[in-house]
């Protein structure tokens, strides 16, 4: 289980007009718990009135940088209470509730590797991609990296200064290609627009030295971009799935008014007794299979369940099925192996047997 700790926002720096870079100081006694891998994320928690709001933000730094702060980037979203507060109100020295790093958006590096890593990021999707590319370059002196990074305009390019400095520091091992969708910054049309399968195919043509099939890819952006690019890499370029890592930066196709899927409509309409194991304690409640998700019912009953995105993206609400069966609506976070081992995202789960037991402590 992931508990929240109060951390000091040691650095709060406006990065672009609509984003802020926050560095949390990790005190000595929490260094072990907050040890992280490149590409992981933190959950932050705010209680505004009677609302308990949680959000996930990717870590920007790389472990090899040896920073004692954990840095995140928060893009302001219209109507987003947490992102508005963090962009407009948070001051250096303020305390924020933060839980330990989580997530699987990374690969393992080794100093003897001679690989090529390709980062494909849109807007604030840069954070976990940059963390991974930095770690690769620090840990693997013989590896190279490319970053294809799309933004609306030059002024919207998040971490531009840091990225340009990294490119200079790694002396040709890191190549940066900025794409702009609403501003012309080059005579060359290749550098206009967004990242798409078509654009990537053109970029591969321009950089023929890239070993497309052997490279490892880190993709972070909106769901259409991820689907388009990962499909192209897998199907057209025959890149093995294990070399394509992606992270959604919002719940894909998230729409509270979205129609029930046909699969959800088809589950039996039953009353179930759901038991949750949380920190060695057991909690039980009745739930109709067609009503709330298991997580929503648990939150309604004020049970101490972990959650953040509620959209099947962040994996914070993961639990293992110990008894019975559930239907999981969406899954953008668990691996096939985890699903086979009975792990589920409780924010997406509905019971399909009369008795269900889930364990959050695994
Ligand atoms: S709360 Fe994020 S996947 Fe369930």
Automatic annotation (TrEMBL):
Keywords recorded for this protein, A-Z: 2Fe-2S, FAD, Flavoprotein, Iron, Iron-sulfur, Metal-binding, Oxidoreductase
Taxonomic lineage from the root: Bacteria, Pseudomonadati, Bacteroidota, Flavobacteriia, Flavobacteriales
CDD domains, per the entry: fer2, PA_degradation_oxidoreductase_like
PROSITE patterns in alphabetical order: 2FE2S_FER_2, FAD_FR
Keyword Iron-sulfur: yes
Keyword Flavoprotein found: yes
Pfam family, one: FAD_binding_6
Taxonomy, superkingdom: Bacteria
Protein name per the record: FAD-binding oxidoreductase
Residues in FAD-binding FR-type domain copies: 2-108
Residues covered by the 2Fe-2S ferredoxin-type domain: 272-362
Cofactor annotation: FAD
InterPro entries in the cross-refs: 2Fe-2S_ferredoxin-like_sf (IPR036010), 2Fe-2S_ferredoxin-type (IPR001041), Beta-grasp_dom_sf (IPR012675), Cbr1-like_FAD-bd_dom (IPR008333), FAD-bd_FR_type (IPR017927), Flavoprot_Pyr_Nucl_cyt_Rdtase (IPR001709), FNR_nucleotide-bd (IPR039261), MRET (IPR050415)
């Amino acid at each position: 289980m992931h508990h929240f700790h109060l951390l000091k926002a040691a650095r709060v720096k406006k990065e672009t007009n609509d984003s802020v870079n926050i560095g949390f100081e990790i005190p000595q006694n929490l260094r072990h718990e907050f040890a992280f891998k490149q590409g992981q994320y933190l959950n932050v928690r705010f209680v505004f009135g009677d609302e308990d709001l949680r959000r996930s933000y990717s870590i920007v730094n790389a472990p090899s940088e040896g920073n004692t702060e954990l840095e995140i980037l928060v893009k302001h979203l219209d109507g987003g209470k947490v992102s508005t507060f963090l962009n407009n109100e948070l001051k250096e020295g303020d305390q924020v509730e933060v839980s330990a790093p989580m997530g699987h958006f990374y690969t393992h590096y080794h100093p003897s590797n001679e690989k090529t890593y390709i980062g494909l990021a849109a807007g604030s999707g840069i954070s976990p991609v940059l963390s991974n590319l930095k770690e690769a370059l620090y840990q693997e002196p013989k590896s190279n990296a490319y970053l294809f990074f799309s933004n609306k305009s030059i002024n919207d390019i998040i971490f531009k200064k840091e990225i340009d400095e990294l490119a200079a520091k790694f002396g040709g091992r890191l190549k940066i290609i900025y794409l702009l969708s609403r501003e012309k910054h080059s005579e060359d049309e290749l550098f206009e627009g967004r990242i798409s399968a078509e654009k990537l195919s053109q970029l591969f043509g321009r950089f023929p030295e890239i070993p497309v099939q052997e490279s490892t890819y880190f993709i972070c952006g909106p769901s259409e971009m991820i689907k388009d690019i990962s499909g192209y890499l897998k199907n057209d370029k025959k890149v093995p799935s294990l070399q394509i890592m992606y992270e959604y930066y919002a719940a894909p196709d998230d729409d509270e008014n979205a129609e029930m899927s046909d699969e959800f409509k088809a589950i039996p309409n039953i009353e179930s007794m759901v038991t949750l194991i949380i920190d060695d304690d057991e909690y039980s409640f009745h739930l109709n299979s067609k009503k709330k998700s298991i997580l929503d019912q648990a939150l309604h009953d004020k049970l101490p369940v972990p959650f953040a995105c509620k959209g099947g993206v962040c994996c914070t609400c993961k639990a293992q099925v110990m008894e019975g069966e559930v239907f999981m609506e969406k899954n953008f976070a668990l691996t096939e192996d985890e699903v086979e081992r009975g792990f589920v995202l409780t924010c997406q789960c509905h019971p399909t047997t009369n008795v269900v037991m889930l364990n959050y402590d695994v």
